[in-house]
Fold:
Amino acid sequence: MGNYLRSEILFAAGVHPARRPQSLSDSELNELARQTRRIMLRSYKTRGVTNDAERVRKLKAEGWPREEYRFAVFGRSGQPCFECGGLIERENLSGRRCYFCRSCQPL
Ligand SMILES: [Zn+2]
Structure:
């Protein structure tokens, strides 16, 4: 799986990247599985755009360039979260960069 998909799926599922699988509830695991399928299909269909489709439509209409509307969190450290306005953070996990929103993905 592409590194950007990891950040985007965890964000869509509301799961903090430092969470361990065994710490997740059944509903969190189900949501993670659902979002994994959903975001990967979306990425395939849109050639790599994983941000929410309605949000992308609005941002495009406002003239945002692809690199700025493409992702919900990936590569957006220091920028406001599209959902809550909190700042997107970046951490290195297992040697790969991961982006997340601390309020939308509580630890
Ligand atoms: Zn947020």
In short: Residues 81, 83-84, 86, 101, 103-104 surround zinc ion (CB under 6 Å). The CA atoms of residues 79 and 85 lie 8 Å apart.
